[in-house]
Design brief:
318 residues, alpha/beta, Rossmann fold, 2 domains, 7-stranded mixed β-sheet, 12 helices, 39% helix, globular
Amino acid sequence: MEREFTWRLTREGWGQGLIDIGERHDDVVVLVSDNTTSTHVHTFGERFPDRLLQMGIAEQNMANLACGMSLFGYTPYYVTYSAFGVGRCLDQLRVTAGYTPCNIKIGGAHSGISVGPDGATHQMMEDLAILRALPNFTVLAPADYEQTRKAVIAAYDIEGPVYIRFGREKVPEVTTAGDPFEVGTAQVVAEGKDATCIAIGQMVSEALIAHDKLRVQGIGLRVLNMHTVKPLDEPAIIRAARETGAIVTAEEHQLYGGLGSAVAQIVTREAPVPMGYVAVRDRYGRSGKPEELLDAFGLRHTDIIREVERTLRMKQGP
């Protein structure tokens, strides 16, 4: 029986999270770069018109202004497409936000390959690698609407810069309002004893489909929703390696420098086991429908299953 999901926009979770935290704290302000509706901050502006600042297409200025406002007691959340809010603002994020450090929260909208027809210039698949490398940053990659909303709220209580990654298209809902969300603590969304898939974003739903299909074959696949990419839940990774003996990572991001690289650093040091990687393999994006791009770039449950089967063969030996 095929797993059935309901689908919802993660950017709506970003927008609702801003309203939730804005109602609790008067120091929360939102800065946006000429994409108010597509990043879903228009609802915050309707609720708090004096606390939404439209910065135009000037992302570097927006990042610097957010940092400056944080030094005067505000808690700024700035948002734009991650290709520009991270890629174009690397100098500001490295020197001003991270080095100081400044208490800002960054919304990386339209991340990954599934942004669709906008093409390679807008398909940000390097953001995790960039921000993992910057000291003082917390990096979050929630899986769905509800987890994105919770990530926005949780970011307020973290001192220093926080990055929250989310996509453009609707994704399957794999968590509920009642599920706990703790920064730095992975969520086990499916149990299994033979291998583990550690996934982020919408790849969590693909991992769950893989779990179901492998179970029919008698293979137990544990699925970890690693919503916090930095700091990683090292105990959960080590426990999965020791208990299941094989690990596959799944991310809508470049292979180099992302989730897979981060997990491998821990596994090779603490509990070496066979590993596989489902990610974009050193390619720029291209225009297309989101579902076509996920197929073309090897980001489906079938790709996870193939990697799991490969790691199991390695686990069993010659």
